[in-house]
Design a protein that fits this description.
alpha+beta, disordered N terminus, binds zinc ion, 9-stranded mixed sheet, 5-stranded antiparallel sheet, 2 domains, Aminopeptidase, Immunoglobulin-like, globular
Length: 416
């Protein structure tokens, strides 16, 4: 599908879809690849992550847990982040360390205030937790990949929490050791605009998966939270979240309560929280199925997740995240009369074999980038009408063409 990143062309089509809709945010949400989510999910599940335990962790589980956190770190590096963007927060001991992993991206305007998206990567003893919660982890990894080069007004933290299943140990230590020790917070504590938690967002492939629970603090006064001054703000963010689900995915958001996951230590200090939690229905009766039949069981593995659903929940999360962090909306835009460079671009054949032809009728000057699904640049060139793709691995790629005025991205399949 061809996407032109210009207001001028958006104006020709459907310029305004509804309250808050931002075309460039949708274009980015549409960069989420189900194949990437499946890869992260399967790779992490294969590490055999289990319950870390208390003071004397099982050494195999501990090794698996550390292998998982290193996998996440390595992936972030391949996305283009550097070691200095990544903090390893030891919540174990010196001799038996295990870590929360925190990726920080600095904002352009409100750099001292954070939008946090978090998900725990540990599991229970019974199983590897492909859904609980490597589904949330995969979503955050994909969001981090896509947003790496995108400016946001607020700073962001993508947090992979450990030891959630021990009783929110990773998030509790993160809050008490790094965020604040004060209740309510004081001026020198970390400023957090919103803490958005993802816990179990992969659904179940034997059920109907077309809704997601959007969790607010103390809806109907049912929650394990302790502070009430943040409830109204949590509800406002969560109502916005429901709206973003509708704008950036094919599923529907449903309001419910926040409880017993990694947002709670933040809530207990007075911070504003929201969250995603899967919602499934029985395909024949329409009755809500709660919890997931695989919950905390050996069957919580990669074969029981609904990956099409995880694709939608991740798109919804990425749409919301861009609003929360106020992601860049500028798209190399000039006035309508000038923005014609990349009109009528033809890229062919698609799928391409050996040679990919690029026809740009309105200019001879343009940059060419061919990016793979992980965001890695495969070809960087300019002003070419033919690319040799004969030695490129088969798969889906993104061709990005840029002129002084516009940029365009098109997905290209290479099938040599
Ligand atoms: Zn969980």
């Amino acid at each position: 599908m061809k996407k032109l990143f210009t207001l001028a062309l958006a104006a020709i089509g459907s310029f305004y879809f509804g309250q808050g809709f931002t075309q460039i945010y949708k274009d980015r949400a549409d960069l989420v690849l189900q194949s990437n989510l499946q890869t992260y999910n399967a790779d992490l599940a294969a590490k055999g992550i289990r319950y870390v335990g208390g003071a004397t962790p099982n050494s195999t589980y501990l090794a698996n847990n550390n292998a998982a956190v290193n996998y996440i770190k390595d992936k972030l590096i391949t996305f283009g982040y550097t070691d200095s963007d990544i903090q390893m927060h030891n919540i174990g001991t010196v001799s038996k360390p295990y870590y929360n992993l925190i990726l920080t991206k600095t904002g352009t305007v409100n750099s001292d205030t954070y939008v946090i998206i978090g998900a725990h990567f540990d599991s229970v003893v019974a199983g590897v937790g492909a859904n609980d919660n490597l589904s949330g982890v995969a979503a955050i990894m994909e969001a981090a990949r896509i947003l790496r080069t995108i400016d946001t007004e607020y700073s962001m933290k993508f947090i992979f929490f450990n030891a959630e299943e021990n009783g929110l140990v990773g998030s509790t230590k993160y809050v008490s050791e790094i965020v604040t020790n004060n209740t309510p917070t004081t001026a020198d504590d970390m400023k957090i605009k919103i803490m958005f938690n993802l816990d179990m967002i992969g659904g179940n492939k034997t059920l109907t998966n077309n809704t997601i629970t959007c969790e607010a603090d103390k809806v109907g006064n049912t929650t394990s939270g302790t502070v009430s001054t943040n409830d109204a703000a949590s509800l406002a963010f969560t109502n916005d979240l429901i709206q973003y689900v509708g704008l950036y995915s094919d599923i529907t958001g449903v309001l419910s309560n926040a409880y017993s996951s990694d947002y709670m230590p933040f809530e207990n200090k007075g911070y504003v929280i929201t969250g995603f939690y899967e919602r499934m229905t029985n395909t024949s009766t329409g009755a809500i199925v709660e919890p997931n039949p695989t919950y905390h069981k050996a069957t919580d593995n990669i074969s029981n997740i609904s990956y099409p659903y995880l694709l939608q929940t991740t798109k919804a999360a990425l749409g919301a995240l861009q609003h929360f962090a106020v992601a860049d909306k500028s798209t190399v835009v000039l006035g309508a009369s000038e923005a014609t460079d990349l009109k009528d671009v033809v890229v062919y054949p698609n799928p391409a074999k050996n040679i990919l032809n690029i026809k740009v009728p309105n200019t001879q000057k343009f940059e060419i980038r061919l990016m793979d699904a992980t965001g890695k640049m495969i070809i960087v060139d300019k002003d070419k009408t033919q690319l040799d793709v004969s030695r490129i691995k088969n798969g889906v790629y993104y061709l990005i063409l840029k002129t002084a005025k516009q940029s365009l991205m098109e997905s290209v399949i290479i099938n040599n």
